[in-house]
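Box S2. Input/output pair 1.
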Amino acid sequence: MGSKAIDSLKFREGWAFIGIKGLKKTKEKKGQKVSLAMIMGYGKIERKEVRKEIKVKHQKVKGGSRIEVQSAGYKHGNFATVNVAGKMLISRKTAKRGLNVVALEPFKHEIVLNQAYDTYGDAKASKRFVKDFKRLPTGSVIVIGVKDEASNKLSGEAKDVFAALGSKEVANLKFREGFAFIGVKGQIKFLEKRGNAVGTGAILSYAVVERKKEIRGKVDGGSSIEIVSANQKEGGMGKIILNGSQILTRSNSLYKVGLRGATMSSNYRKGDLNK
């Protein structure tokens, strides 16, 4: 603390000292009978707050989306965020306690669900989560971030939903622990992080419908016959294809109720068909 007299202090000698820990700012006197005094102001605590703002430039992903999710438990930030293609779908302000869930349809990643489930305080929240999950189409992208606490009333059935998506960490989710998850319904394809404050991200492509083109070959001494039939919910139509030619088309059968058919002779030639 800056004392110089202490080294030469003698047997039964007086010594008066005023100092400040951490500073070499002292007053001292040494002798047979000494005293000292000083006026000292209160210490001022300088608070330096460092805010490091990280700006992430979200580039557009052709044929897909960049997806990011963050989660923090109550004592470690108490927030959840979900960002899809540069759009903050769930922010620190809008996130709620429990599971914050965003679901995207497979083909264009349009939002089909954006909902919070308070699996800490609401005994029915897990049931609603399971019910809403079952309604989602196969291939939906599921993004989940926990805010505050989500383990208290998270049911076994709700955990089974995560397990079906491939999750292993949800079974070990602790009280007021963060949990970030990205998965795809119908696939064991997922990312997850569990801890005090966690996050994960992925670039996922849109789902693609594969169209198979059939090549119809010629049949020697016979005919190739194909029939398509659909009820009203599935299109309300019928088709008959004979040797690659549509005899009964979708347009002339659309929503016409009843049987639609065709007959041909045993030695069929073009022109011998009766509708």
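Box S3. Input/output pair 2.
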Amino acid sequence: MPDEDVIRRVAVIAGLREFFTALTAYADAYEVFVSGKKPASPEIGFARSNDPVGALCTGLRAALAVFLVSSFWILTNWAHGSTAAILGAVATARLATMGPAVPIALGATLIFALATIPALLSSKCCCRLPMGSRCSPSPWRQCCFCAPS
């Protein structure tokens, strides 16, 4: 028998096994529903991290991210900087739950830093008229951050 046929049969058997497991679970749930009995709720385990150093580093990283983004917001007088501060906090919290924290945090820092430079340049250059007036009524106004003078 060729290997392709064996692989196909194993896949079919695995698919049928999953189907019948799901069908059995559905039948059990339907039987509990029809009988009117209260279903037994499974115990939900709660695990607590025993790594206070890791939690401290994560908290410091989040605080530093919010501080840096907020400082940038205040120093540049960015009109929509509050959104960036919130995004920094959410991104830091989200990245804290992923795999190896240090490489991911460094990568995210580089991405945000490299994305900030064009935003600053566009806010200072693209939205200005030569006479130093505020945002121009051009299409650039829709796609860049217009910082006040």
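Caption for Box S3: Residues 31 and 37 are 9 Å apart (CA to CA). DSSP finds five helices and no strands in the chain.
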